[in-house]
Design a protein that fits this description.
Strand order of the largest sheet: 1-2-3-4-5-6-7-10
Shape: elongated
Low-confidence stretches: 1-33, 36-40
Order of helices and strands: HEEEEEEEEEE
Number of helices: 1
Helix content: 10-25%
Number of strands: 10
Strand content: over 45%
Mean pLDDT: 77
Distance between the termini: 69 Å
Radius of gyration: 25 Å
Structural class: alpha+beta
Length: about 190
C-alpha cells in the first residue's frame, strides 16, 4: 500500500507544479502587454460615440466630448411602435449629462455630476405624455484600450411629469424603484 500512496502524492505534487508553471508562463505573457495610457492632462479624449443609459430607463446612442477635467455627453433615441390596434405610438428620448473628474487613475477616472433628460410618447390613440428626468450621481470609467471606455453610473433618479400608462396617464413627481446603477461604453476618435 505504501508504494500506491507515494505514487498518488508524487502525482499530486507533479500536477500542482505543472499548474504553477502554466500560471507563471501565463502571467509572464500578461506582463508583456502594456496598459493603455491615461488621458493626457492637456486635452482628454476628444469626441466619442457609444451607448449609454440613464438610471430611469432613458437609453440610446451617446455622443461624448471629453476634456481632461470634465466631459459632457448627450443621449438620444427614437422609436415608432405598433400598439396592436393598427396605430403606432412614437417615443422620443433625449438627455444630457456632465461629469467633473475628481480622480484620474492610470487608465480610469472617477467623476461626480448628473444630467437631465426628457421622455415623450405620443400617438397610438393614447394621450401624449412628457416626463422630465433629473439624475445626480457618480461615475467610474475604465479605459480598456486607449480609445475605448466602459462606465458604470451610480445615482438617484427623479421623474417629474406624466407617466405612460395609456388612458390612466397621471401627472406627478416620482422617486421610485429605479435601478441603482447603469453601464455604457464609448469609443473615442483621437
Amino acid at each position: 500500500m505504501k508504494p500506491i500512496a507515494r505514487s498518488i502524492v508524487v502525482r499530486s505534487v507533479v500536477v500542482c507544479l505543472g499548474f504553477v508553471a502554466v500560471l507563471c508562463v501565463a502571467n509572464r505573457s500578461a506582463l508583456a502587454q502594456t496598459n493603455p495610457p491615461p488621458p493626457t492632462s492637456s486635452g482628454g479624449n476628444g469626441i466619442g460615440v457609444g451607448a449609454s443609459a440613464f438610471l430611469s430607463g432613458l437609453e440610446g446612442v451617446q455622443v461624448d466630448y471629453d476634456l481632461y477635467n470634465w466631459d459632457i455627453e448627450g443621449v438620444f433615441s427614437f422609436g415608432d411602435r405598433d400598439n396592436g390596434n393598427g396605430m403606432s405610438r412614437t417615443y422620443l428620448q433625449a438627455g444630457a449629462r456632465g461629469w467633473w473628474h475628481l480622480h484620474h487613475g492610470s487608465s480610469s477616472d472617477f467623476s461626480v455630476g448628473g444630467g437631465i433628460g426628457f421622455l415623450n410618447a405620443s400617438g397610438g390613440g393614447g394621450p401624449s405624455v412628457t416626463t422630465t428626468l433629473i439624475e445626480p450621481g457618480v461615475r467610474a470609467r475604465a479605459f480598456v484600450t486607449p480609445n475605448v471606455s466602459v462606465q458604470a453610473i451610480l445615482g438617484l433618479s427623479i421623474e417629474i411629469g406624466d407617466n405612460d400608462a395609456g388612458a390612466n396617464a397621471r401627472t406627478g413627481v416620482a422617486l421610485a424603484g429605479q435601478p441603482l446603477f447603469t453601464a455604457g461604453f464609448t469609443y473615442y476618435f483621437h
